[in-house]
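Contributing new records

If you add data, match the layout below exactly. Sequence lines come first and carry their own label; structure lines follow with theirs. Keep one chain per record. Anything else will be rejected by the validation script.
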Amino acid sequence: MALYADLHRHLGGSVVPRVLWRYFQRHDAELSARFPDYYEFEDFYTRPRNTLNEYLELHTLVESVQTPETLPYFIYRLIRGAYVFENLAYLELRYTPYLRTDQSLDTKQRIDQMRDVVKIVGEATKVGEYPMITSQILCMHSRLSYEVNRAIVDLAADHPEYVCAVDLAGGDELYADQLDELKKLYHYARSRNLKTTGHVYETTNGLYPQLLPYLMRIGHGIQIPLKHPELLPELAERGQCLEVCPTTYTKTGTLDNLSQLKTVFDRCFEAGVDIAICTDNAGLHNVRLPFEYENLLTLDVIGFEQLQACQEAAFRHAFAWPYSQPPASLLTGLLQGRYD
């Protein structure tokens, strides 16, 4: 029974280790030779890294094989797993389309090819036997040029049938030298009626209050309640929601343990700031959404009432959820109508 929503999942980190390893064995001789044993690969792929930048390097491994030709293969398995094992009713899948284009092409040709990538991803997520509402978030990237990032915004705005928002990803320490350009890009996105989120306040290198007014949701944002709780009333007034991805912070060395998130949840609930619990990179972590829930409950980071509030907030802040209620409420209404 599909009941949950994941608002923050990267296409590059969504492939579970077994599926990725099997693809290498069948289709990529070089990577197959590099990782001949599955368990060695799983350990390499899922072990914690020391920094966010080191962690992000793993995305390049997957991006290199997520081509227009192979995307349907990976996405079908992603949707199947999300529906069967995670009970997802709604999924926003984010990625940088430019990084799925042919690297042998020039910049203009790659920008043109991004349109094909978005359509391929959009059509591949329509899997009849696993009914789930999906939409794409296109990520601008801190390592890409203004020209490419603006083209990503235009692409998102031109394809509302596939895309619900834009994001900003990449190493957050690189934002500092691009702040004026990034603010222009977000202003342009809002002028084109796009919804917005962005990876800020994830680490202590990502503290950019200048970007907060442009965001409808905040990707991670845990450093706000941890280090700058004075900002929480502004977030509450704007109705912004934090996309908190628990396992990520131990995988990137941002937090020592998940228990440290208790401060994040407690301060946000006290200030009236919504949190959606998300996976970020479910495959890379080998941790699915229900296990994120269970880990937080087991460690007494949150209680069941807080968990339910976060689950409801996820649907309330979902950019493309078409209903006014979460699926549990809709199902309750159907069952009451049946038995009345």
